[in-house]
Specification:
With about 260 residues, the chain is an alpha+beta fold. About 55% of the residues lie in helices and about 15% in strands. The chain is built from 7 helices and 7 strands, in the order ααααααβββββββα. The protein is elongated.
């Protein structure tokens, strides 16, 4: 996604620059300890950049860290040469370990991304699988709401029928009453906003989405955000789940009888 690419480019510049600043900051310590000991600080920086900025940014940071160690912290100072074999070993070791940290550390972001995708699939599965379930309506709707909260930045949700009677709710959110703000079903943004690929939070004060089939409104889905933003992809997944949720409501399919 665009925001992920922008963040990666930010760290691609910030990581190497931080490595240079770190070398400068460690200059007062170079006479008190060996360069190999100071290399641990550069390793920590590379791991942090790998986690938050991705592989390319981490590799660039690892390379600049090794050069910064050589330039600022090994004799002769302020030159890209090394005269002591121990300093040379520290330089090579930092470079190798930095590249390993860049490769392994950047996996964490991909694993987190896959975990996010899985929670979204679980949310859609709960909405689809419930259509064939013989569980009571409140149990089926409750399972969908629980899966939505696990996947999305939502603090609570309530499903109401067209008369605003509660059909299912997460704990404590019925007492919050009916929200005033309305969101469009497909984008989960205010009507008229159109497609927006930027992250936006679900309102913490609450908002509602009309549950409709054709021109018939069968109910409402009331949502309360947890204060964090939802990406465009996440909002689309929640919108798809909401569309599936409609088919669980009484009267959605005349031939379908809710127990």
């Amino acid at each position: 996604m665009r925001e992920d690419r922008d963040e990666s480019l930010l760290f691609l510049g910030a990581g190497p620059f931080a490595a240079i600043l770190l070398g400068l900051a460690l200059v007062p310590l170079r006479e008190f300890t060996s360069a190999s000991n100071l290399g641990f600080a550069f390793m920590a920086l590379t791991i942090l950049v790998a986690e938050y900025g991705g592989h390319r940014a981490a590799v660039a940071t690892a390379l600049c860290s090794a050069l910064s160690l050589d330039f600022f912290l090994t004799k002769p100072y302020l030159r890209l040469t090394i005269v002591d074999k121990h300093d040379f070993i520290a330089f090579v070791g930092l470079g190798v370990c930095g590249f390993i940290a860049a490769t392994l550390g950047s996996q964490g972001k991909r694993v987190a991304s896959l975990a996010t995708v899985r929670t979204q699939l679980d949310m859609l599965h709960a909405a689809i699988g419930g259509l064939e379930s013989s569980e009571p309506l409140a149990s089926r709707l409750g399972a969908i709401l629980d899966a939505a909260i696990a996947a999305c930045p939502i603090a609570g949700a309530v499903v109401r029928d067209a008369e605003d009677r509660v059909l299912a709710a997460t704990e404590g959110h019925v007492a919050k009453g009916v929200p005033n703000q309305i969101l469009a079903l497909k984008t989960l943004l205010p009507p008229g906003t159109g497609e927006d690929n930027q992250p936006h939070p679900i309102p913490t004060a609450g908002a509602r989405v009309a549950l409709t089939i054709g021109n018939r409104q069968l109910g409402w889905l009331d949502l309360w955000g947890d204060g964090t933003s939802a990406s465009a992809q996440l909002r689309r997944s929640l919108g798809d789940t909401t569309q599936l949720l409609v088919y669980h409501l009484p009267g959605a399919i005349p031939a379908y009888q809710n127990p």
